[in-house]
Amino acid sequence: MITTILATATVQGEQGYAQKITASAHELASDEPVKRGGTNTGASPFELLLASLGACTAITLRMYSERKQWNLGVITVTLRMLKDAEAQHIERHISMSGALDAEQQKKLLEIADKTPVTKVLATGVRVQTMLEAGF
Q: What is residue 14's DSSP assignment?
C-alpha cells in the first residue's frame, strides 16, 4: 500500500498558548484569545480549522469554474463553528460577485460538499499520536 503525504506542519510553543506554525515555507501563528488565557497573537485552532475549510472551498470552486469558464468574480466563504448540547457543526456561507443562473448555483453547492477538506471533516479522520519526551 502506497502512502501519500498530503500536507505537513510543525507547531512549536515554549510557554503559554502562543504557537509558531510552519507549513512548507509559510509561517502562521496560533493562540487563544485573552478571555481563554491566551495573548491573542494568532488565530485560535478552531479558527484555523475553519480557515482551512474556507480556503479549500474557495480554491475548489475557482478550479471548477475555470474549467467551465464561469465567471464567479470574488468568492467569499464565511464560516462559523457552533456547539449545542448534543453536537458541533459548521455553517458555511458562500457568496460570489459574479452572476450565476440557478443551475450553476446548484452545481457549485454540490461541488462545495465534495471539496477535499469537507470530505475529511464530514467522514472524520483517524488521528494516530506518538509521544517523544526529552528530545
A: S
